């Protein structure tokens, strides 16, 4: 007499439920970008040059003209006094000589504060730096105050 083979049926529903629960958990708990320690509203431009995410020194000027220096890890942001900005930049450049220098200036920051920072960069022999901006959409038109009047 031939033995009859019983097929085994595995219910995959619980595994699919667990997979979706894990997916939802990771989507809701992951921070893709660390919160900025110094909030600035960047000026708009059409440039699409991408700044590296690691190996950067970030110089930030807020709307009141205060200057901050940090790396891509925003938790280490330090305020720079105008009289010791040169020493701070040189110290950070010595720590990471191959770092890309990124300047983040608030669109409402005074021209004098930005000019002072660029003069300090020149004195620190840092003649190449990137100015970070937000991407202007094709339909954005400059408003009367120089800002974007179009769809944001």
Cα(first) to Cα(last) distance is 78 Å
Q: What strand line-up does the widest sheet have? A: 4-3-2-5-6
User: Beta-strand level of the residues, as a percent range?
Assistant: 15-25%
* Mean pLDDT across every amino acid position: 81
DSSP helical segment count: 3
Secondary structural class: alpha/beta
List the quaternary state of the chains: single chain
| CATH architecture call of the domain at 52-135 | 2-Layer Sandwich
Shape: elongated
The CATH class of the domain at 52-135 is: Alpha Beta
Descriptive account of the structure:
This protein is α/β, with parallel strands linked by helices. It has helices at 13-29, 85-95, 111-123; strands at residues 44-45, 56-61, 67-71, 78-80, 100-105, 130-131, 134-135. A five-stranded mixed beta sheet has the order 4-3-2-5-6, covered by helices on one side. Strands 1-7 form a two-stranded parallel ribbon. The chain is elongated and about 95 Å long. The model is unreliable at 147-152 (pLDDT under 50).
Sum this structure up briefly.
This protein is about 25% helix and about 15% strand. It is of the alpha/beta class and about 150 residues long.
List keywords for this structure.
single chain; 152 residues; alpha/beta; Nucleotidyltransferase, domain 5; disordered C terminus
What's the structural blueprint in terms of helices and strands?
Elements: H1 13-29, E1 44-45, E2 56-61, E3 67-71, E4 78-80, H2 85-95, E5 100-105, H3 111-123, E6 130-131, E7 134-135
Parallel strand pairs: 1-7, 2-5, 5-6
Antiparallel strand pairs: 2-3, 3-4
């Amino acid at each position: 007499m031939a033995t009859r083979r019983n097929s085994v049926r595995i219910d995959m529903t619980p595994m699919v439920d667990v997979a979706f629960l894990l997916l939802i958990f990771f989507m809701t708990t992951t921070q893709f970008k660390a919160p900025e320690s110094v909030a600035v509203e960047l000026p708009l431009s059409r440039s699409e040059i991408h700044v590296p995410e690691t190996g950067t020194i970030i110089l930030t000027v807020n709307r009141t003209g205060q200057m901050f220096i940090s790396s891509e890890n925003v938790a280490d942001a330090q305020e720079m006094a105008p009289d010791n900005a040169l020493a701070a930049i040189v110290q950070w450049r010595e720590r990471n000589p191959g770092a890309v220098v990124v300047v983040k200036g608030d669109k409402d920051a005074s021209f004098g504060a930005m000019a002072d920072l660029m003069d300090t960069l020149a004195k620190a022999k840092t003649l190449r730096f990137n100015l970070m901006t937000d991407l202007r959409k094709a339909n954005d038109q400059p408003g009367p105050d120089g800002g974007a009047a179009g769809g944001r």
